[in-house]
Amino acid sequence: MRRASLTTRIYAGAMIGLVVLFSAVGLAASAFRQAAVGGENRMFAQLPGWPRSLAEWESFPQRFDDYFNDHFGLRKLLLRLNTNINALMLGRLPSDRVILGRDDWLFYAGEESLELYANKRPLSGAQLDDARDSLTRRVGRAKQLGAAYVLIIAPDKHSIYPEHMPRFPTRRGGPSQLDQLLAVARPAGLPVVDPRPALLQGKADGLVYYKDDTHWTDWGAYLGYRALMAALPLPEVPIVQLDRRQFSVPGEMKGGLADMANLPWVEQTRKVDPAASRCDVTRTPFERLSPNLSIARTHCAGAKYKVIYIGDSFSDWIMPYLSQSFGEIVHIARSGFTPWRDLQPTIDREAPDLIIEELVERHVSSIADARESE
């Protein structure tokens, strides 16, 4: 039998040693409960109890294997090492809800976002009619309360930074869903605010969206706020006046997309200087109204008008500016789809002067949802 060369034996010994070392350290970390399991957005397997039936005996090996795999001591380190190698060397990510763009930009791929970016999901004529009718009903109901209504669409990041998207998918010509909505809303005099022009212009002065998150930055939210304020029909509303130089406070942002992709990336940001505030805003904590709705309030002494603001997570960035412009804001935070009829009782009870609704661009089609019918 031919003996292996010295180089081969050294290499094999080193590999065996590494396997033993990683296994030993991993088991030790597991024993001392040092394994971190966050960032995967799922429930982890629990240690199975002693089997008490034949069925439990049959499933015990798989359940214990699931537990061991989830709680192995170096799990998080190895997962992140694998993610970094795939992202930086192969351009791939372990989550199908995140794609890696050019210059290490991350983009959301869930909720048909890539199809919407590629203009492969145009709204039908019937959907556009339904959307126009839904907005008309909202405006009409607001008038009955003596209030005005405005809808603002927070653009998807790829609409503002298409140059950082990967070379796929190929973008078709033709209007986006937001373009289609504006084409039917504006001739009908329906108040839909499109902040894309302000954001596209403002990105020359600084990032308006985070590289590792879906949301706009403090600077981007301020530009959205200014576009919204310019469209409001109320007189004598004070506007927070800022320029780019006042967004100078250094900070860090652990983006939701980076977390979703299990990447340890932390983004350096510039936040607005708190000294730029025009009034001392008081805020109440959120209270749960339903599984998809929460409510909070802000007050700004000396400012006029009561506003109901209905929005998603983009609200977290724009609310600091809006809260300085109005006497009271009733902030209704919603997640998922909430039919307008479920919001109407709260709106009627609060009797606002103005109703602001915010939707992210990828949810534009929800305005035309059949469940909006009353």
TrEMBL record:
<dbReference type="GO" id="GO:0016740">
    <property type="term" value="F:transferase activity"/>
</dbReference>
<keyword id="KW-0808">Transferase</keyword>
<keyword id="KW-0732">Signal</keyword>
<comment type="pathway">
    <text>Glycan biosynthesis; alginate biosynthesis.</text>
</comment>
<dbReference type="GO" id="GO:0042597">
    <property type="term" value="C:periplasmic space"/>
</dbReference>
<keyword id="KW-0574">Periplasm</keyword>
<dbReference type="Pfam" id="PF16822">
    <property type="entry name" value="ALGX"/>
</dbReference>
<dbReference type="InterPro" id="IPR031811">
    <property type="entry name" value="ALGX/ALGJ_SGNH-like"/>
</dbReference>
<dbReference type="GO" id="GO:0042121">
    <property type="term" value="P:alginic acid biosynthetic process"/>
</dbReference>
<protein>
    <submittedName>
        <fullName>Alginate O-acetyltransferase AlgJ</fullName>
    </submittedName>
</protein>
<feature type="domain" description="AlgX/AlgJ SGNH hydrolase-like">
    <location>
        <begin position="98"/>
        <end position="360"/>
    </location>
</feature>
<keyword id="KW-0016">Alginate biosynthesis</keyword>
